[in-house]
Design goal:
Layout (H helix, E strand, L loop, with lengths): L1 E10 L2 E7 L3 E6 L6 H13 L14 H5 L4 E12 L2 E14 L2 E10 L2 E3 L10 E4 L5 H4 L2 H15 L1 H27 L4 H44 L6 E6 L14 H14 L3 H22 L10 E6 L2 E2 H4 L2 H23 L4 E5 L7 H12 L3 E6 L7 H6 L1 E6 L2 E4 L5
Parallel strand pairs: 3-13, 3-14, 8-12, 12-13
Antiparallel strand pairs: 1-2, 1-4, 4-5, 5-6, 6-7, 9-10, 10-11, 14-15
Helix pairs in contact: 4-5, 5-6, 5-8, 6-8, 6-10
Bound molecules: adenosine-5'-diphosphate and magnesium ion.
């Protein structure tokens, strides 16, 4: 797939933008704070319905337009995408309404001018985004790493995404009930029946999520190892990616399993393959086992919402032992493996969004990335300095300049 046209209204620092795009690489060149990242963010947002930055969605509306305090302000992204099934128009509206001194914010999604649920946008446009901050996937919190799995998987798998949303709702309901039961004590017998109904539904959704994540992480681990071993370190280092499912409490009674216990769960889960019933049974046991504790805390302590995944280089955990350089390499391997994963799963290359990452990479890694670009149908690449790219690449890329929320074709460098 590739984008043929992008139009923005009141999105970040873009008041109004109409931009034609073509297949192949497009280089967006500009100084800092001109709107390069914002442009990639718009494309990413359409593909995933999420901002890569965790700030709230209403921040995406252009501040100046918002400051006018009109009754309705609409930020808008419209993308025309050429797919195997023809040309599609995707639209996302960010709507702020003010009535009687009350401001509300909502979003609307449209495909070919018809309103759809936000979730229905997923899969219409598939992207892989690579940001300098992605090194935070190695060093950051488990929540960031779960978010990475969820966003990546949701773009290629609607069942996963739907189940995840069901799971999150059930989890909220279950937690609310746990708190209620804790307050009412044992008098609420009926409540315990309701709890087991919620629990069964939760177990079912959890099993689906565990299984999808296991398969995804297994495929990604293979890709990561291949890229890293063969292409990045010339066979010197092995990089392992492990999915760490939060299947149960730690053995010692602590809710947080230690590293070796997490590894045991990981091995166990990998060995189950497609055996749904076994996973269901084990998780049911864990949930039952945890119920006394969960009643005290008023929340659910085991399940996919506590999962994690991590890298190991030559047998050592990369987050605690790796150098910054190794961590960057691992993330590059992850991103390249992600491109391969999306391509094999969907039979189509995703649109690659590279935000200022060249400056962070050394020469070999830069050329590896540039080689990859040749195999991708469309890529949007931002940089402050086009000299970071080989001349042959610059000749073949379309070059645009970004200045204060405006985009112009760069005149020929010669
Ligand atoms: N909602 C918004 N409305 C208007 N301007 C915004 C909004 N959000 C961010 N900006 C501005 O966008 C600029 C940053 O754009 P960005 O795309 O990150 O720049 P860069 O070209 O360095 O990647 C900053 O000047 C910031 O103040
Ligand atoms: Mg930027």
């Amino acid at each position: 797939m590739h984008i043929t046209h992008l139009s923005l209204t009141n999105f970040r620092n873009y008041g109004r933008l109409e931009l034609n795009l073509s297949p192949g690489p497009t280089l967006l060149v500009g100084d800092n704070a001109q709107g390069k990242t914002n442009l990639l963010e718009a494309v990413y947002y359409m593909a995933t319905t999420r901002s890569p930055h965790v700030a709230s969605d209403d921040q995406l509306i252009n501040w100046e337009a918002d400051r006018l305090e009109q009754p309705v302000i609409v930020g808008r992204i419209v993308i025309q995408v050429q797919t195997g099934d023809g040309l599609k128009q995707l639209e996302m509206r960010l709507i702020r309404e003010r009535r009687n001194g009350q401001a509300t914010f909502r979003r609307e999604a449209l495909v070919n001018r018809r309103k759809v649920r936000l979730m229905d946008l997923l899969g219409e446009l598939r992207v892989v985004l690579f940001l300098p901050e992605d090194v935070g996937l190695v060093t950051g919190s488990p929540a960031e790493r779960r978010r990475y799995i969820d966003i990546t998987l949701c773009q290629v798998n609607r069942t996963y995404c739907r189940t995840l949303s069901t799971y999150n709702k059930l989890l909220e309901q279950r937690n609310a009930l746990l708190r209620q039961l804790a307050e009412q004590g044992t008098s609420a017998e009926n409540g315990h029946d309701v709890l087991s109904v919620y629990s069964e539904q939760l177990i079912d959704a959890a099993t689906t999520i565990f299984m999808h994540r296991t398969r995804f992480m297994r495929d990604m681990a293979r890709g990561v190892q291949r890229v890293h071993y063969e292409k990045l370190t010339g066979g010197r280092e092995t990089l392992r990616l492990r999915y760490l499912p939060r299947l149960q409490h730690g053995q010692s009674g602590s809710t947080r399993p230690d590293d070796s216990e997490m590894m045991q769960f990981a091995n166990w889960m990998e060995a189950q393959g497609n055996d749904r019933n076994t996973i269901t049974d084990r998780f049911r046991q864990a949930l039952t086992h945890a119920v006394a504790h969960d009643l005290l805390r008023g929340s659910t302590s085991v399940g996919p919402h506590r999962d994690d995944w991590q890298f190991w280089v030559n047998g050592r955990n990369l987050s605690s032992y790796g150098s910054r350089g190794q961590q960057r390499s691992a993330v590059l391997a992850l991103k390249l493996a992600e491109i391969d994963y999306v391509t094999t799963t969907t039979n189509d290359t995703p649109i690659l969004l590279l935000d200022d990452v060249m400056a962070e990479l050394d020469g070999d890694r830069r050329s590896l990335l540039v080689d990859y670009l040749a195999s991708i149908r469309q890529s949007l690449i931002t940089t402050t300095d086009h000299a970071l790219f080989p001349e042959s690449f610059q000749r073949q890329a379309k070059q645009l300049t970004v200045r204060s929320g405006r985009i112009e074709e760069l005149s020929d460098p010669e």
